[in-house]
Fold this sequence. Notes:
The complex is a heterodimer of chains A (226) and B (247).
Chain A: H1 3-22, H2 26-43, H3 51-72, H4 75-79, H5 82-88, H6 94-123, H7 130-155, H8 161-172, H9 174-184, H10 198-223
Helix pairs in contact in A: 1-6, 2-3, 2-6, 3-6, 3-7, 3-9, 6-7, 7-8, 7-9, 7-10, 9-10
Chain B: E1 17-26, E2 29-39, E3 44-48, H1 55-62, E4 70-75, E5 78-79, H2 84-87, E6 91-94, H3 106-116, H4 121-134, H5 150-162, E7 168-172, H6 180-190, E8 197-201, H7 205-208, E9 214-218, E10 224-229, H8 235-243
Parallel strand pairs in B: 3-8, 3-9, 6-7, 7-8
Antiparallel strand pairs in B: 1-2, 1-4, 4-5, 9-10
Helix pairs in contact in B: 3-4, 3-5, 5-6
Amino acid sequence: MTPSRAAFAAILGKDLRSELRTLQSLPAMALFSITTFVIFRFGLDRTHLSGSLAAGVLWATLLFAAVLGINRLFVTEREEGGFDAIRLAPIDRSVLFSAKVAALMIYLLALELIAVPIFALFFLGSGAALAPLVSVLLLADFGLAATGTLISSMAVNSRARDLLVPLVLLPLVVPLMIAATGATEPLLVLGGPGYHRFGTWLMVLGLYDLIFGLVGYAVFDFLLED
Amino acid sequence: MATERPAEQISAAEPALRLAGLRRDFGERTALDGVGLTLGATESLVVVGPNGAGKTTLLRILATLLRPSGGEALVLGCALPAEAWKLRGRIGYLGHEPLLYRDLSGRENLRFHARLHGIKGEAAETRIEQLLAAVGMEARGDGRVAELSAGMRQRLAVCRCVLHEPELLLLDEPDSNLDAEGRELARGLIGPDHDRARVVVTHDPERALPDADRALLLGHGGHAVRECAAGELDLEQARLANAGASR
């Protein structure tokens, strides 16, 4: 294993181990999602949603739940000296970015394993759309993880961290959310999944991922400078 | 030991530190000003001065964690900040924070740092056990750091600092939170009896000066008051410097 891969595995393993022990992010994200679905169910007074409304409810809920995890992503590095430890080690600092993106991806996938079936139970007639939804979730999660990691690393040193993350992140992920809901909408139409412009929206998601993945990787080193 | 040394490892004849007019500003406030000194590859430097004299700032600059605002700094032959990347992995830094994750155990923390520094597998495990034994922490190594006392955490931090066998130790109050036994055990790892350079920031010159080759006195505002051989500095002067009365 190259030093960078070993460092990547070490940082990712450390984050996952800490989360499993402390359960600081995932339970809060899952609970938020379930509560929001309940609020939507009674707020909209609908037992069934389809098309753009269903896609909007799903992605708005997942996005705001993700913000909870993004807010805490670098807190241990800030409070327990992780930034200094990584800056002292003979590794490319972008490894920290990659490991945090991977950790956030895993949190989001774990969240969706809980939240999406509950969404289907609350609002969808069948689970037929869930299989093709996986590709949308994966692409949108990567974009959200890359952008979220970048913004979280910038905001973590601020006392207004909890305010800054949503204020800066949400405008940046508007294109991602448009593409994610655009790709999800035909999957959730009444009468089973459709695929109208599905491929186009997946390509937009892929392009967003590529741009923000590369930007994050390129600028992260500078963000860690004093 | 499995740590791979970088090709640019310092030669015995090359000084570990060569500083000239080193300065660091935080906004309009100058934290460190006019620091100049030369430290040999196996020498120890003790830095004394009152609170706010820039001692920690000096260490963080030497550790490449802060950029100098002015002056010249050559650390292990690398110019800062341009060649800071060449220094990473060659410095052992023991600051005010132990740089240990509270939710991991001592062993897990040391394994994490070993992997960051490219120490792998069996070599890492052997080194970790050797270090834990050296500071009397073998039995407590599996306890979460959050559950350890401050002194135990400091012992682990000492292990973390020397895990990768650095060429230069930067120690900020290394005895803090340590009892007499802990100080003695830590001394075995970060004391002067190793062939490497050390910079020790201390408020306890009585204990640090006998081990030092050179001394640096910093005054209020980070001004270098005096740089000399440790033997030339009398203990009373060092105490006064710590109290901020050396000028």
